[in-house]
Design a protein that fits this description.
Layout: H1 8-21, H2 24-36, H3 42-48, H4 54-74, H5 80-86, H6 89-108, H7 115-131, H8 135-151
Length: about 160
């Protein structure tokens, strides 16, 4: 049994955030990002997903959504434990964009770029370490393997 002190308002906010995730265009952006997004530098990001493309719109939509949700979470409007029990996707998003962040912050002259996502992902990692020791390392390795497999060109059938 959880010792969370989540309120009804916090639970309702979390349900509202979940409803937003179900919006068709955001679902499309999430599916693309999880399955296909890969960029190690801002230059690669700009080359692979230039302004005006569907992929660029999906990237901006998904990152904007999670930055907004994490801002709500970071301000205590949703209970961390309740949220973390039901939302791992923010961590996957953070994991995939983390290599880009320092350079993006420097080039945009915005040291707070995606700071809400970073803060929530950092707390989620600490929560995982507390409630499921070893899960974070296992999860990192599993996701890294999936990303590496997705980057491999398809093998012709023998």
């Amino acid at each position: 049994m959880s010792t969370s002190t989540a309120t009804h308002d916090q639970a309702n906010m979390m349900l509202r955030v979940y409803e937003m995730r179900r919006e068709p265009r955001l679902r499309q952006a999430r599916a693309w990002f999880i399955a296909k997004f890969s960029a190690a530098t801002p230059e690669e990001l700009a080359k692979k997903y230039p302004q005006g493309t569907e992929e660029n719109a999906s990237f901006r939509m998904l990152i904007g959504y999670w930055e907004m949700v994490c801002g709500i979470l970071n301000r205590g409007l949703m209970d961390d434990e309740l949220f973390f029990e039901n939302n791992n996707e923010l961590w996957l998003v953070w994991f995939k964009i983390k290599p880009l962040i320092l350079a993006m912050r420097q080039s945009s002259k915005n040291p707070r770029l995606f700071a809400q996502l970073e803060a929530a992902a950092t707390r989620l990692e600490a929560w995982w370490d507390r409630v499921a020791p070893g899960y974070l390392d296992h999860h990192r390795n599993r996701i890294a393997q999936l990303i590496a497999q997705a980057a491999q060109p398809p093998q012709p059938n023998s």
